[in-house]
Amino acid sequence: MKYEITKIQPWPLARVTSLVTVAITVVISIPYLALMLLFSGGFEYFDFSVWMIAGVLGYIALAYVIGLVSGFVFAFVYNWIADYQKGIEIDIDLVEGQEKK
Fold first, then answer.
1. What is the domain partition of the chain in residue ranges?
2. Which of 19, 31, 34, 49 is deepest in the core (most CB within 10 A)?
3. Which of 63, 33, 27, 78 shows the shortest CA–CA distance to 51?
């Protein structure tokens, strides 16, 4: 069976892209922060460490906003293009008698 995606709801896509972007950012930022604290002398330079942690948290917040905006933009552009062209086609084969696991 072939299905076609004719419209994407912007808000659900924006939520998913923002959460995925934050997850990727956290996976990258936490080891980066740990290495920076390790090689900069740890919390010995307390002021530097606080600003470093604040910077990483700000970077994660910025990643959330970028993911949110990019999800909205992608959905609006896709919906605009799908009005004039065919949408993405998905071919799904349904198998009868297959056990649900």
1. 9-89
2. 49
3. 33
**Cβ-count burial 48-83 (b if 16+ within 10 Å, e if not):** ebeebeeebeeebeebeeebbeebbeebeebbeebe
Tokens of 16: 């998913």
What's the confidence (pLDDT) of residue 74? 96
Averaged pLDDT, 41-60: 77
* 48, 40 contact by CB (below 8 A): yes
Q: Is the pLDDT of residue 99 over 80?
A: no
Give the DSSP H or E segment for 26. Answer: helix 10-39
